[in-house]
Amino acid sequence: MPALAIILVVAAIAAGEWQCPSLPPAGVQPDSSRYASKPSVIGNFKFVGGVLQKYSGELDQVASPIFDESTGERIIIGSLPRMSAEDAVEAVEAAAKAWDGGQGVWPQMSLAQRIATVEKLVVELWSVRDEIVNVLMWEIAKNSGDAAKEFDRTMDFVGATIAALKADPTLGQGFNGWTEVSGVSVRVRRGPIGVMLGLAPFNYPLNEMYAMLIPALLMGNCAVLKLPAIGGLAHVLTAEVLGRVLPPGVINFVSGAGRTTMGPIMQTGLVDVLGFIGGANGADALIKAHPKPHRLKVFAQLEGKNLGIVLPDADLETAVAQCVLGGLSYNGQRCTAIKLIMVHETIADEFVNQLVARISSLKVGLPWEEGVSITPLPEQKKPQILEALIADALAKGAKLANAAAGGGELRGALFTPAVLDGVTPNMRLFHEEQFGPVVPVARFRDLSEVQSALKVSWNGQQASIFTGDAKAAAPLVDTLATIVGRINLNVQCGRSPDTVPFSGRRSSAQGTMSVTEALRAFSVETVVAYPVKDTAAAAVAADLDHYTKFLAPL
Questions:
Q1: Where is each Aldehyde dehydrogenase domain found (predicted)?
Q2: What is the pTM of this model?
Q3: Which of 44, 157, 293, 294 is 20 to 30 A from 328 (CA-CA)?
Q4: SS3 category, 103
Q5: CB distance 92 to 83 below 8 Å
Q6: Which CATH number, 1.10.540.10, 3.90.550.10, 3.40.309.10, 1.10.3720.10, labels domain 3-26+304-489?
């Protein structure tokens, strides 16, 4: 940051006001080869009932967080239908028609047939992989490696889900074959619930949606997908493939304002299961809109204010490296990001110095640049939100530790990470999820301060403990074991591997995500039983495999 800029920042802090120092926006020139590679995904259609219908209503222009340097404006890369309440209800009615009270083509297929269809879908999706990866770079500014990884990991998730289902279609319930229990012979298979409404966030628009959608499809459900306003173009690219592979109405798209479309869908009462990844307030509003919430099954992965705890004996190199990785991968726009670091006061100065040095070495730039770590922010209002959080902390005594290195600078949508030292519980950054490249550091003297913060926190997702001493870690493990779903030792918070349960408590989750848990979330056990002594019933049961689709072998 230039000397004059530092003087202005210091003056603004002293006055109790702070705004991101603004520089010329990060972008491309219209005559460049990179500009020529920008996508143009025109979503001027509705995908409802298995048909791509021309959409005659208004379209929302999709603007990239990458700017046109000649105009200083965001580059338009596509469009999505601004659907009405009537359009939204049409979509859920199409899903309900495909479900047909559980008698539709898809729910009545055998599990083997559904698996084969989803396997074919994966093959077809690979044909649009490169387009999806390019869209992820331009629409949500995910760097090239992470954009490719999102697609590939999603396909790997599908493969792992199918493998788990083939290995054990009861998903650990047992009773895959006829089993005698207290004079009754039973067999268990899992069946669909009905119509799913799926909503996923912008940060992993393909992966998060498919982590719910594919298990739901495999189990026989039909779906309405609310495309995110940011990140929706990746789904537009899949519409033709979905329409070609799946029976009509099994998947239907809704786009436009959630306030316009989601309430009417829920109010129909046609939604049987809600798959939601996003904010707790949004989930609450949808659940309340359902006329019979008692029959609505909810799977929700929500917010996180994950804590990194650095104890006095921690290996600082490891702690700093993992806190930077955990706090700033994809700009910190992950529910699993470390969003507050509490470090013991005896090592805090050195920790912050190393933290600032490592963050200052991160490359800030555009998604396709080699080695880039920090990219533009897709949400147009996000810089102002971060700015307000920083200003609040500075006004209450925190320090912008990397001001001299450009922390908090804004180039259009490109926000240089800001490190806030001396964050305390009376500051918004201590409690609120920033979901962006701001790294708050709080100092503690006694472990009870950390335990008190954890006790009152709304977060129930994860925490990371950095220490080399099991005895020092033990009290925190015991505290966290009833608060969060995952405790990480000397490593950042994270979701992978996908076979491991990804759970949460408090306001962070309702349900568990993993390959097998997602299949359970979107299905219900169905038991077939007969009295062991009833020879006629036993004879019927013995032949059912040959005639039913439900019990047909895989």
A1: 76-523
A2: 0.95
A3: 157
A4: coil
A5: no
A6: 3.40.309.10
